[in-house]
Each structure stands twice: as structure tokens, then as C-alpha cells.
Give the backbone structure.
Amino acid sequence: MWDKEHLNTDEANEILQGALDKLIECKCPLIGGHSINDNEQKFGLSVTGVIYNSIYYRNNTAKIGDKIILTKPLGSGILSTAMKNGKIEFNKNLDVVKSMTTLNKYAINIAKQFNIHAASDVTGFGLLGHMLEMVNNDISIDVYLNNIKLFHNVIELAKAGVIPGGSYQNKAALESKIKNDTNIDDIIYYDAQTSGGLLIALDSKDADELNKIFNDEGIDSSIIAQCISKKTYDIYLK
């Protein structure tokens, strides 16, 4: 949707050019689209894919003992909200901008050399929402909060209440399935992410090796969780 009142032609061209750059980077053709006028700017693309060679990863097939890797830091929803509200400056928070504009294809192209048991991305449901999608009848998941990397300024902004409304909605909808065994305020882990990273579940040894390769390749990943035998709650925050 194009905001004709607050968006000029040069800005619209930059949005379209950015989308085109990423389509070219991931070798994805643009088939079509439509435009309408609105008083608030909105832009997005939907993706339709084809499975080749029967290779795909479900999000709910992790196994007991698996470790789970997160391939990007958390907090893009909070930082995006802060930028929109003038709480932080865009040019001083380029780490989150770089992360949001980095395609996940680079991480998955490395990871697919290993036997991936399950995978998901982290977007609108937040880390814990997408982690819940990875739970199955055999497993619960221990999440180690101190292992989770956060973008700069995220904790301070969260304490100041600069949090997207969607993050509070995520917590209200999901927290009955999650046991927080820490004294840490967990709202950050429900933060609705924009272009978040991947969650990848693998055998423990493979996860350790893959995480090292990620870090050697400049991917800011960490091992944040482990799958355990089914317990009362789906997720335990440690």
C-alpha cells in the first residue's frame, strides 16, 4: 500500500529497489502484484516455493537430546518500534538493520550439510511462539535465556516499555504452556521479530559443530535450547 501523503517518489523507489535487490540475491522471480493507496505505508511480498529432491524440514520433528541453534540475535521488533517512535537513531543501530536485511539462505545452506531434525524461522510469534511450534508429543524444550544473544539496547528499551503490542499479545496467548524458572522478565523472548533468524534442531554433537561453523562464517548464532523428555509444560525457561 502506498502512502501518497507522507511518502515521496524517491522513497517509494528505494523500497522497490530494496525488494528487487533481495529478490535478485536469492534468485527469486517476481511474478506479479498490485497496489492500493492508503494513509499508512505498507509493503510486503509473499513467497511460493517448490520442493526439489524431496528435501524439506518440518518444524515439529525434533528428538529428545537435540540441541537447538538460533542463527540471529533477538530484539528486532523492539528496536524497530523504538526507531519508529524516535527513541533511537537509525544510523546508530545498524547491527539490527544489517541482520534484518541478511537472508536466512546463507545459514540454511551451511546447515543442510548436517542431518537437520527440525527447523523454523523466528518472526511474528516471537522466539517462544515459534519454539512452541517445534514441540511434539515426545519432547519439551529447555531454553537457556543466558545463551540467547540480544541486539544492543534491547534490554534498556524493554525496561522502558518500548515493546510492540504484538509481543504482549504473544505472551498472553502462549505463557500458559511455558514455565519461567528464572527471575528474568521474559517479554523480550515473546518479541514479535522482523526478519528473525532460524531455529535449527540437530543431534547434540552436530549442533556443536554447526554452531562453530556458523560463528567462523560470521553468523551470530548460539545454542539456546535442548529437547528433553515430555514434561508438564512444553517449554521451561532456565
The chain has a mean pLDDT of 92.
